[in-house]
Amino acid sequence: MPLEPTALTAISPIDGRYCRATRPLGDYFSESALIRYRLQVEVEYFIALCRIPLPQLQGIDANCFEALRRLVKDFSLEDVQRVKAIEAVTNHDVKAVEYFLKERLEQMGLAPYKEFIHFGLTSQDINNTAMPAMMRDAWRQVVRPALAEVMDRLRSLAERWRQVPMLARTHGQPASPTCLGKELFVFVERLQKQLLQADMVPFCAKFGGATGNFNAHRVAYPQVDWVGFANTFLADTLGLVRSQVTTQIEHYDNTAAFCDALRRINTILIDLNRDLWAYISLDYFKQHIKKDEVGSSAMPHKVNPIDFENSEGNLGLANAVFAHLAAKLPISRLQRDLTDSTVSRNLGVPLAHSLIAYRSLLRGLDKLVLNEARLADDLDANWAVVAEGIQTILRREGYPEPYEALKTLTRTHATIDRSAIVAFIDSLNVSDAIKDELRAITPHNYTGCDVFF
To answer: Which backbone phi and psi does 71 adopt, to 5 degrees?
Structure first.
């Protein structure tokens, strides 16, 4: 016997294991949310027709507009069930919303006007306005604030650790020292720039009838400027940008751009997760320990960087879906095929995985405990990294082949510690002032980070 749908029986972890993190997105991407957004478009379109006004709608009392809008505001589970019951008969989801709204107009005494619900429209005039509005609202009200929280937390940690020297690693090998804070600021800057690009992508919609030409509108009311009407309706009422020349469906080009923008943001965060994971493995960070938390079912000592791993995994899932949406949605055979319909229903999936990832990353950042002694030990064990600074000063002073001299010193299997560096400096045929300058260079102060701070 099938179980009732719950978090424990959900097929997807979005609605199961991670439902607490993703629950806010239910207001934007659930089936009931899609129906509500469709209803909003239908209601606002009917009101806009009344305000042209079309001759047959001149007798309608404008006081009913707020009552119509309350159908959207007070949209209930019972209303959803009624729409789905109608759909079970019509086998058409958008037509079911139209019939539901016509029923409500009859109950409000507006039956003479009900045929102006969905007047001249095709389903995609509703879907291609409802869905970008859903995506816009979910992004601005749920997902973007979570990303901004990650960026703020990262910026705060970067500020806190801005002067903490750290051994850099290029190709996995010791390299010229840096500062921990500066390395985190790298990610802050990258995220800021990509978020700016994401915010510049407009949320576009299609509104123009069966093949985008306002055929039905123009044959019924040729005197009306339907293009101007639609542009104003979408911009002023729905807050969307109308694509001007379309087929039956929206181009989805800007939807693809939005997906690609978020994919770049998520790629940066994957990079961040992997770096933080590596720093934990190097013991640069400890993690706050919860008394009853288990790191391994077999090894009691384990405190694993699970939050960063969870974040990385969900970001990868999000990006895979974003990539498919961006590649598929802009392609449609001739004036339309139906492949976008089932795909576009998944617009919330990558945003949900992104949201899970951002929340996991925040938990991971909050657990970090800087092990400054370990960073200092790593620097002390790698005095060879000051060779760059020493040979550069010697170049400045005209010393013969300084790079080669330092290469001979450092590229051996012998330990290069402070004493080896000092002995090398003492052997140089340069002034005492230059030797003092060279001796002042240590792995702890040779960071260069003051150019940023």
So the answer is: -60, -35
Phi-psi sector, 244: left (phi>0), alpha (psi -120 to 50), beta: alpha
- Say if 22-119 and 127-372 have the same CATH topology: no
Question: Cβ–Cβ contacts within 10 Å for residue 330, how many?
Answer: 16
For residues 90-113, give the mean pLDDT.
96
Element (H, E) at 246: none
Give one word for 364, left, alpha or beta, with left for phi > 0 and alpha for psi -120 to 50.
Answer: alpha
CATH superfamily of 382-451: Fumarase/aspartase (C-terminal domain) (1.10.40.30)
pLDDT at 292 over 60: no
Q: Provide mean pLDDT across the span 355-367.
A: 97
Beta carbons within 10 angstroms of residue 146's beta carbon: 19
What's the whole-number average pLDDT of the chain? 93
Q: Does domain 127-372 have CATH number 3.20.130.10?
A: no
From first CA to last CA, the distance across the chain in angstroms is 65
Classify residue 280 as exposed, middle or buried by CB count within 10 Å of its CB (0-12, 13-18, 19+). Answer: buried
Q: Which residues of 369-397 are buried (b: 16+ CB within 10 A; e: fewer)?
A: ebbeebbbebbeebbbbbbbbbbebbeee
Q: Which has the closest alpha carbon to 48: 232, 189, 223, 173?
A: 232
Using the predicted structure, report yes or no on whether residue 287 has a pLDDT greater than 80. Answer: yes
The whole-number pLDDT of residue 413 equals 63
Cβ-based neighbour number of residue 122 at 10 Å: 21
Catalytic residue ranges? 171, 296
Which residue ranges make up each domain of the chain?
22-119, 127-372, 382-451
Architecture of the domain spanning 22-119: Orthogonal Bundle (1.10)
Give the Å distances, CA to CA, from 451 to 174, 178, 447, 448.
Answer: 21, 11, 10, 6
Strands 368-370 and 165-170: unpaired
* pLDDT value, residue 303: 66
**Tens-place pLDDT, residues 8-20:** 788 888 888 999 9
pLDDT of 334 over the 50 cut: yes
